């Protein structure tokens, strides 16, 4: 049976690659796409989702979500990573893109989860504002969600700690209060953070092969990743780029490719370590312990990076030839 998924996203180059992987996978039923601010403005993020839906024939609903964090000030869109339009500044045909759901993203999530109790996986690859708003408005959905998969955070495994500050990852620091709310809600969370996403790299050779072999998706992915690859080369001296958001989709399809640790997670919401994600392992109680009564969640700490690359390629090529 296919895994029913609502994909919460701020498309975004790597978000778009992940969205297309979910669409192409025979293991996933992409029911909904909820948008959030981050890589692009909420208007551009939603336009990009509708554009991808139209261009590639997605049947998923699209609902517009939050344009500001719960508490902290909103940062500027990361145009230096994703381009002014969020898709690497490729040409996007002018005009209106119709078909947006009338509900706010958090209401769409609540209604969908209640309509399919125990069946929906929420995969969030941007700020966690929409998920936090949903579980705050209706806490009962926590017991009805199959799983929450989050691309975000960093816990220090494999030498990866942060990419915005020494200890904070972009999605988490973008709305740390929302992230802490999501991590501590009584639903099953799996975090696919920098610990594993920065272990997997798509090289130029890999993207060239995808461009040739995936008739449906390859040329589009090649075009949007030119800007993304240039950023990684300029800022980090990399030949290729990290596989962030698609790793969350891969986890939903093939969790056996990942090793996890279990424990309660908290997110620092102020001070110089704001956005830092912290996992408490073991059952020891402390005199002051803001983890002790929180639910145990899962954090990915190791990954079969070649398995991730092989699954992405096989999925995109197989779908393209159908």
Automatic annotation (TrEMBL):
<feature type="domain" description="Inosine/uridine-preferring nucleoside hydrolase">
    <location>
        <begin position="5"/>
        <end position="309"/>
    </location>
</feature>
<keyword id="KW-0326">Glycosidase</keyword>
<protein>
    <submittedName>
        <fullName>Nucleoside hydrolase</fullName>
    </submittedName>
</protein>
<dbReference type="Pfam" id="PF01156">
    <property type="entry name" value="IU_nuc_hydro"/>
</dbReference>
<keyword id="KW-0378">Hydrolase</keyword>
<dbReference type="GO" id="GO:0016787">
    <property type="term" value="F:hydrolase activity"/>
</dbReference>
<dbReference type="InterPro" id="IPR036452">
    <property type="entry name" value="Ribo_hydro-like"/>
</dbReference>
<dbReference type="InterPro" id="IPR001910">
    <property type="entry name" value="Inosine/uridine_hydrolase_dom"/>
</dbReference>
<dbReference type="InterPro" id="IPR023186">
    <property type="entry name" value="IUNH"/>
</dbReference>
